[in-house]
From TrEMBL:
Domain Response regulatory: 2-122
Gene3D superfamilies: 3.40.50.2300
Keyword presence, Transport: no
Domain of life, per lineage: Bacteria
Keyword DNA repair included in the entry's annotation: no
Domain HTH luxR-type residues, every copy: 144-211
Coiled-coil segments: none
GO BP annotations listed: phosphorelay signal transduction system; regulation of DNA-templated transcription
Name of protein: DNA-binding response regulator
Length: 220
C-alpha cells in the first residue's frame, strides 16, 4: 500500500509516518500544504492519501478542497480525512462525490492505533470509515420532520453503523442481534428511504449519503 500524508502539524505528520512504516506500509511522501500534496499525488500515484481538513494558508477548508481535487484527478484514490473536530459541511462535501474508498476520522482516533489502522485498511480496500462521533452528531442535528423520521430507533442504529463502514456481521455483533435481523433492518431502511433494489453496495452508500445530506440541510 503506497501512502501520501498531507498534514501541517509536523509532530502528527512524522508520527503517522513512523507508525505506518512500522506496520510495513509504504509512505511515499509527506507534505504540509495542499499544493505539495497534489504534486505528490500526481508524482507518486499513491493508493491512499491521508489528509488533514485544515491546512495552510487559511487553515479552513484547504485540505478538503485538495482531497476533492485529488479524487477528481485519480478517482481510484482512497482518501482518509483527519479532523480535530466534527465538521459537518466538510464531511458531506467530500462524500458528495461518492463514499467508496473514503474515510473521515477525528484526529483523536489516530491514538487508538488498532482502530485507525482498521479504518485505513477498510478505505484502501474500497470501503467507508466514518468516525462514530461524526455519525452521532449528524444524527443528533437532524430534526423530527427529516427523512430519517421514517426509521425506527433500531433502524437508525443500524444506519449509523453502516455509515461507520461496518458490514452486516459486524453490525450484528455490535447490536447483539442475528445477521438475519440486520439484513431485515437494512431491507426496511432501503424501503423507507425509497431506494430501488438495484446493486446492494450502491444502496448502502446511497442510504449513508442520504442521511448525511439531510443532516447538513437541517442544520442550515
Amino acid at each position: 500500500m503506497r501512502i501520501v500524508i498531507a498534514e501541517d502539524d509536523a509532530l502528527l505528520r512524522e508520527g503517522l509516518s513512523l507508525l505506518l512504516r512500522a506496520e510495513g506500509l509504504d509512505v511515499v511522501a509527506t507534505t504540509d500544504a495542499p499544493t505539495t500534496f497534489l504534486a505528490a499525488v500526481d508524482e507518486f500515484r499513491p493508493d491512499v492519501a491521508i489528509v488533514d481538513v485544515r491546512m495552510p494558508p487559511t487553515h479552513t477548508d484547504e485540505g478538503i478542497v485538495a482531497a476533492v481535487e485529488a479524487r477528481r484527478r485519480r478517482p481510484d484514490l482512497a482518501v482518509l480525512v483527519l479532523s480535530a473536530y466534527v465538521e459537518q459541511a466538510f464531511a458531506t462535501d467530500l462524500l458528495a462525490g461518492g463514499a467508496v474508498r473514503l474515510g473521515y476520522l477525528l484526529k483523536e482516533r489516530v491514538g487508538r492505533v488498532e482502530e485507525f489502522l482498521t479504518a485505513l485498511h477498510r478505505v484502501a480496500e474500497g470501503g467507508t470509515a466514518i468516525d462514530p462521533e461524526v455519525v452521532g452528531q449528524l444524527f443528533a442535528r437532524s430534526r423530527p420532520d427529516s427523512t430519517l423520521s421514517r426509521l425506527s430507533a433500531r433502524e437508525r442504529d443500524v444506519l449509523a453503523l453502516m455509515a461507520e463502514g461496518l458490514g452486516n456481521g459486524a453490525i450484528a455483533q455490535r447490536l447483539f442481534v442475528t445477521d438475519g435481523a440486520v439484513h431485515k433492518h437494512i431491507r426496511s431502511i432501503f424501503g423507507k428511504l425509497g431506494l430501488a433494489p438495484d446493486d446492494r453496495a450502491d444502496r448502502r452508500v446511497t442510504a449513508v449519503l442520504r442521511y448525511l445530506e439531510d443532516a447538513q440541510r437541517r442544520s442550515w
